[in-house]
């Protein structure tokens, strides 16, 4: 199978909105392949620049390595080249390297490297971690800077020098000074993606920092609204952006912020609310309450 080259992937990711399709589960929490395929088929009809399979919103942290491979292969098969599929690399270095190799064999178009599981690490250790994953694959690698793997501008610059297939930095922190330092030091060598939860909230200000795109969770269930919002951000139409923030995004955040982990749970609830089958979330996440689902459904109805 022909993959995007790292340079091609970097260029592609800049061209539009990105998203993490939820991974559908049966009531017993097993992978629901048919529902996942149906969801992917629907989403990939829209004009998005890439889909991240088995990622954060896709509950990648709750999947076994075998399940991740199955989900990635399913995504590659169903999307069938219409949209690039980026697969996760998770856990410690050995596990992440194995994930990257498996993803390439499965036909993925790129890798999203998540922070290492549990342990804290210094910048030198993170450099070796990221470099090991980059060396293990010919695919373009996006590094997710957040949690226990927050990269400084100096680290990002060294990684970019050492690893030609490190092509994209996804920020999940929102530290404006650090983001400015990174862009000033590294510039157009990388593609920059906004990765904060409900990224629409930060999209307009981050545009000024060189982050021309972001991953949209709400694209899972209100794709037209998400794409329209993104267009307003690119046009720097502040009136439209803030109207839509007040209309949908901020009330959505009010529900999301009630319980830890709802940033994922509310996306699955949204998919279910529009009549598509995403199923429940896996523990330790918890599903929204019936009242919260009702509130979310009413909110979606205002922008559908």
UniProtKB/TrEMBL annotation:
GO terms for biological process: D-glucarate catabolic process. Pyruvate binds at residue 57. SMART domains: DHDPS. Keywords: Lyase. The keyword Acyltransferase does not apply. Pathway: Carbohydrate acid metabolism; D-glucarate degradation; 2,5-dioxopentanoate from D-glucarate: step 2/2. It is an enzyme of class 4 (lyase). It holds the Pfam family DHDPS. Its EC number is 4.2.1.41. Gene3D superfamilies: Aldolase class I. It catalyses: 5-dehydro-4-deoxy-D-glucarate + H(+) = 2,5-dioxopentanoate + CO2 + H2O. The active site is at residues 144, 170. GO terms for molecular function: 4-hydroxy-tetrahydrodipicolinate synthase activity; 5-dehydro-4-deoxyglucarate dehydratase activity. CDD domains: KDGDH. Belongs to the DapA family. This is Probable 5-dehydro-4-deoxyglucarate dehydratase. It comes from Kribbella sp. HUAS MG21. The gene is kdgD.
């Amino acid at each position: 199978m022909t993959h995007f080259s790292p340079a091609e992937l970097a260029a592609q990711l800049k061209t539009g909105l990105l998203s993490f399709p939820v991974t559908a589960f049966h009531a017993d929490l097993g992978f629901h392949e048919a529902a996942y395929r149906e969801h992917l088929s629907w989403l990939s009809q829209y004009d998005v620049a890439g889909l991240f399979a088995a990622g954060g919103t896709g509950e990648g942290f709750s999947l076994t390595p075998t399940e991740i491979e199955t989900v990635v292969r399913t995504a590659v098969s169903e999307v069938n080249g219409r949209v690039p599929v980026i697969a996760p690399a998770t856990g410690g270095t050995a596990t992440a390297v194995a994930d990257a190799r498996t993803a390439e064999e499965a036909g993925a178009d790129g890798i999203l490297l998540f922070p290492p599981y549990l342990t804290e690490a210094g910048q030198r250790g993170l450099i070796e971690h990221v470099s090991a994953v980059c060396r293990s694959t010919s695919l373009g690698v996006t590094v997710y800077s957040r949690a226990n793997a927050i990269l400084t501008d100096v680290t990002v610059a060294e990684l970019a020098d050492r690893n030609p297939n490190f092509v994209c930095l996804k920020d999940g922190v929102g530290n404006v000074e650090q983001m400015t330092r990174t862009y000033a030091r590294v510039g157009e060598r990388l593609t920059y993606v906004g990765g904060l939860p409900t990224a629409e909230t930060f999209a307009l200000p981050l545009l000024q920092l060189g982050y021309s795109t972001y991953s949209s969770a709400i694209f899972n269930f209100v794709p037209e609204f998400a794409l329209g919002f993104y267009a307003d951000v690119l046009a720097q139409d502040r009136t439209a952006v803030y109207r839509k923030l007040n209309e949908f995004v901020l009330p959505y955040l009010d529900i999301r912020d009630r319980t830890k982990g709802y940033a994922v749970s509310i996306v699955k609830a949204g998919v279910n609310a529009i009549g598509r089958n995403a199923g429940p979330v896996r523990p330790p996440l918890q599903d929204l309450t019936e009242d919260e689902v009702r509130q979310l459904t009413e909110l979606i109805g205002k922008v559908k």
